[in-house]
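Issue: copy button drops trailing tokens. Both records pasted manually instead:
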Amino acid sequence: MAVKQIKKGIHWVGAIDWDRRLFDELIPLPDGTTYNAYLVEGSEKTALIDTVDPSKTGELLGHLQELGVRRIDYIVSNHAEQDHSGSIPELLAIYPEAMVVTNEKCKVMLIDLLAIPEDRFRTVADGASLSLGGRTLEFILAPWVHWPETMLTYLREEKVLFSCDFLGSHLAQSEPLLWDEHHVYQSAKRYFAEIMMPFRNNIAKHLQRLRALAPDMIAPSHGVVYPNPDFILKAYEEWTADKVRNRVLIPFVSMHGSTREMVEYLTGALMRKNIPVLPCNVIGADIGELAKELVDAATVVIASPTVLSGPHPAILYITYLANALRPKFKFASIIGSFGWGGRMLEILQAQLGNVKAEILEPVMVKGFPRPADYQALQRLADDIEKKHRELGILP
């Protein structure tokens, strides 16, 4: 790859992972990802902001060699997760003078995860600063915008915020700076849904602090650098707000057609009420795209056939995931079919303990839906319309 200068004396020296298709064995990466690391040179000291995934350490070292870097004084670790910290042990071996600069919580994690010797650390508190000579790094502790030890680093003179995972995107591209706002918006929204959404209340508080800083550039550790920070800050303010959109998401599975028939009927009933609706067959679906829809949909209707006495396993997984991501949808319901009975409603409702949504009356059908069942689905569509009108989101 190649080193890229994002501002005078500030270089992107990270790695691009074009082929990675799964993160943490959980999150699909249709566009690959990057592990961003930045070299900041002062008149007296040189700092490396974060490192890269251990599988890409060779690329990071090649970039430092390309720049002729003979000495690194500080390796700033904003976050202990190995895709950003995994190269630290090898860097400490190559640059024996370097100290790892991080907060106390992150230090403990790095010792646990990477066996970094305790005497190689310099810990900092919230608001602490570190001079590089003509340039000053300021540290902002931001617990639970992702992990409990997450930290941001602000280059005071140039007003560059190194935000680590916060405000990032999983997007591999050769040019570090943002160039396609629509594409990056979608990628950043998906990243928010998959990774950041459970922490949206904490994130909202930290966004206010970042607004007060008024950075000129935001450089996260995944995806693109934002030369216009207002773009990503406004997007996060929208996603973390309580406001939802006039939209219904229906994740569904159908084994023999009965549940699909119910989904199609409900979809049509909602469309006739000018309520945008997205039925999503979760078998083989891109889970990241489904998570993205959870960011601002007002209503989610879960649709499943009964397998033995409970929901289809794929629907159970989606419900578990939605509960973990803690989306802000206001209303939920369950529809589905059964052959002889079961506990599907009870099991699915128990899975939604973290979601503070009002449950609208479910519709369960024995076998293929009959006229009375279609009337029940129409009643559910009417209920959704009424709730959306009460929220003021249905024109």
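Record 2 (pasted manually too):
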Amino acid sequence: MKPNLDIIFAALADPTRRAIVARLAEGEASVAELAEPFAMSQPAVSKHLKVLEHAGLISRGRDAQRRPCRLEAEPLAEANAWLERYREAWEQNFARLDSLLEELKAEEAQPRSVKTRQKRKNHRKHA
């Protein structure tokens, strides 16, 4: 099943769920272990886990009486791939801005007579 970005980002919109994901990036954990750092009940943490599980971000296994939660990589990879496209576009925009700033700096560094000649030259081009 292909991960649904809407559900993934909705699940990750909550800071408690992001903290749970961060904790699970270190390794499997039980609900009790995941609930430790939060000032909330285990049932409340379980509700967060259900949201993460529905988004495909985590899964639960069975180890005797313990049901450890683990992070699932595919939905995070899908979300990262979506974000990566925008990061690349922003980097291209920043590179163009850097280039423009370098041109402006170079233009300002030129002696006044060179600037005047360039302005005349540009003016003739556009006339």
